[in-house]
Amino acid sequence: MTESKTLSADAPVPEATAAAPVAEPAAAAPEPVAAEAPAPASAEPSVTATAVGTDTKSVDKSDKSVADSKPAPSAETKSEELWETPGWPLAADHPLRTFHARLPSILESAGHSQIWGVTLSTSTPAEFSTLIILQKFLRSTAGDLETAAANLEKTLKWRKSFGLDGIEDRSGVKDEDAFKGLGYITVVPSLPEPSVKGAETSVNQIVTWNVYGAVSDIKTTFGDLDAFLRWRVDLMERAMARLDLASATTPIPDYPAPEDPHRLLQVHVYSGLSFLRLPPEVKAASKATIELMGAHYPETLSRKYFVGVPRLMGWVFGFVRMFVSRETARKFNVVSWEEQLQPELGEKEYVPQRFGGSGPELAELQAKTKDM
């Protein structure tokens, strides 16, 4: 009997494996291995009679000339009230404008201004791509501006120290043989999402695959923690690049409105692994990856599927639950049998036959969808 179910926030979350990393919940992207306010009206201020002994209720039509003589708000005044960023107008009291006003000091302190293909700009009105990044950090803290600003600064400092966003190889991954066949990035055209881009538009899903069932030697893959993390970050960075946030034109709604359309879908495949125990190397890699993804990749995960996880071994997810938020746990889905995955992803030709689709194996599918 096949089974596919979605875990609730209180349900145990499968993650660790004896031969592979527990899934990394990406709270964005942690994972085991391991109303908008309306723009203020610009109407002219009302005029009342101010002469001694005059009742404001009895002002006659001759006083209308006083109101008519008031100058209309200038274009400059209007721009102060409403940012006309194409596709994303923001009223003067919108929290994103307050966040953006703090950006100069954040960038100066961090000494770094690049993230996920976007160069953060302090120009006003704010650039669309800059708003995308700020909104992700703001939503990840449920609108807590202070925490969001602190988290953004920490992430920019980490990216600089980790060697990301440079001309050379992003993460310094060197030993590809240790991770060969473990990670892929594909695209699956999904059904139209009217709430996101209109009823006539189909939204492509960027999917990252972690095939932990392909791990042949635990010490080779997880023994060097720094090397493993650099490989995992590189996979994540390449997936984020596919979102092309620098050219995004769809705004992210304010928390807690409907979901952010600029996120990744993740699949972790555990088929064929032994779940009898959690080796220390896997435990250390899982914990470090979960923490790193949670801290520096906010609002980057839409859904995560754990494939090939036996029901009786669901207890291993308890390890991950110690490190992820309830909100992240709600995005986890367990698919007991590989062939049950395709309906969850989209069109059959973009899902390997192994997972219920009609497409080729992951390596070929990755090449096929590289330019989508």
UniProtKB/TrEMBL annotation:
Biased composition (Low complexity): 11-56
Localization per Swiss-Prot or TrEMBL: Cytoplasm; Endoplasmic reticulum membrane; Microsome membrane
Gene Ontology molecular-function annotations: metal ion binding; phosphatidylinositol transfer activity
Reaction(s) catalysed (UniProt annotation): a 1,2-diacyl-sn-glycero-3-phospho-(1D-myo-inositol)(in) = a 1,2-diacyl-sn-glycero-3-phospho-(1D-myo-inositol)(out)
Annotated region described as Disordered, given as residue ranges: 1-86
Membrane topology according to the record: Peripheral membrane protein
Record family assignment: Belongs to the SFH5 family.
PANTHER family: PHOSPHATIDYLINOSITOL TRANSFER PROTEIN SFH5
Protein name according to UniProt: Phosphatidylinositol transfer protein SFH5
Species this protein is from: Trichosporon asahii var. asahii (strain ATCC 90039 / CBS 2479 / JCM 2466 / KCTC 7840 / NBRC 103889/ NCYC 2677 / UAMH 7654)
